[in-house]
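Following up on my earlier thread - several people asked me to post the actual chain instead of describing it. Fair enough. Here it is, all 566 residues.
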Amino acid sequence: MVGGFWINEFASRIKGVLFRGILPIDKSRLGSEMIAGIVMAAIFIPEVMGYAKIAGMPLISGIYTILIPMAVFAIFCSSRHLIVGADSATAAIMFGVLVTVAVPGSPSYLSMAYMIAILCGVFLIIARVFKLGFIGDFLSRTALVGFLTGVGIQIAISQLGGMFGLTTSGIDTIPRIISFISHLSQTSITTLIVSIIVVFSILISRRINVKIPGALIAVVGTITASFLFDFTKIGVSVVGAVPSGFPSIILPTSSTLDSYAFFTAVSACFIVILAQSAATSRAYSIKCSDELDENQDILGLGLSNLAAGLTGSFVVNGSPTKTQIAVYSGARSQLATLVTAAIVLLVVIFLTKPLSLLPNATLASIVFLIGLEMVDISGLKDIYREVPVEFVLALITLLTVVILGVLWGIVMSIIISLLLHLSHSYQPNNSILIRNERGEWQFVPITFGKYTHKGLIVYRFNRDLYYANAEKLMKEVINLVEASEYPVEWLVLDSGGFTSIDYTSIQMLKELKYRLDDMNVLLVLTTVFPSLKAQFERSGFIHVLGEENLYKGVNDAIKSFENKRS
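Reply from S.P.:
Thanks for posting it. Predicted structure:
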């Protein structure tokens, strides 16, 4: 009894900090969680080997991403469903940047890869401390769809040489296509046959049931065939020796770092991790009706990336595909993730020797299919149907990745995301208050000549006010006053659309007050938040406006206007 009490007491104390994605444990689901963890391991191992190939890293480093980093996240996160590990997006970003300054697999390349994971971890922990998770929201869905589709096309094309048994050159997509076509006559028929068998095995298994680990079947099958028929003697290359054992602590050196490439990769991976992980965890928390603490998950992501960089792996991310696989396999908590990590531990200790017989064509085929999965045709169709202008922006991002490479694709994604944000904030759909046909008050889009009451216009600015759109507010107000059918006596500015403003906007409001005074129009403000009022007081705008011209709400201002006219 006493022992049980202390165990429960200890569990209740750590629940608030650790194991939030695991506790409380539903004993009736222990068997299901164990089975789900085994299925996840079977699917994830060949998948992360493919991601390691995308990242230009040793195969074992990909497997390491679903060992310690995955376990660390399971312990420190709040989400019961989000799965962390190597991901195609961050792997492609890292490779696309680092390959321009170092040879994949070289000591300098590996050192930078480890440091990227460590620094991403540090930045994520800082983001947790200062609650900066909103940064991920600045990578728009439109830009992300275009970027990931472009990356998927690039990844798929990059694997064609390996699938055909060709040695191709070039980093970016167009040179790779040219090199592939020029060497096509040298195709290894035996290698191509292996690739075709692998692709069809995976596709058929998915068609039957997505729970069937088609990639694992292909890996085990081709390793067995490689052992029985000695593939190297019939022109099918294999991956070669894969180190075994528990990962050791690595302290990467910074002497070989290229600062520009390094910080570009870190920044891009950091934003993608925030954006993609947050979107995935939110989606599954809603889908499965679970509570979610995004700040806790950011901490878990940070610690996972630190663990990855210090144990010879590379950057990890909250993965939508792994999360979907986990949920479909029956996982309902991070307990299944710990089971997966335990299975992977057994693999890295006892089963890496057979991996040395794995044909490169098998791995290239798995990566090829991963690339095709990233091509989000349905997402592009949705954007085209719903917001055609944004489809053009997504297409520009896609083509930038395909033609110029991942690095410029990252830059274009960020630029387009910022442009979308600025376009929405720079051109807000502002409104005025009128009575509708039923005599009810209603805010409607601005039509010059309309008014709220004879002599009164209630105007609402529907975005935060800052230097880029301050002039728009002034012009609209002046035009509303000048176009009114009846002389305007009061112009009521409903400031509920913005909570704080910058220096430029405050100066604009002062100028607006003076111009309306010259037109014999009283400027009145309503719905002024406390933080905004404090700014007005510090800037002296309250003195210019007159505190008596501040009203709690629009109705109060309208009643005051009506009383003064009666």
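Residues 22 and 471 are 53 Å apart (CA to CA). That should answer part of your original question.
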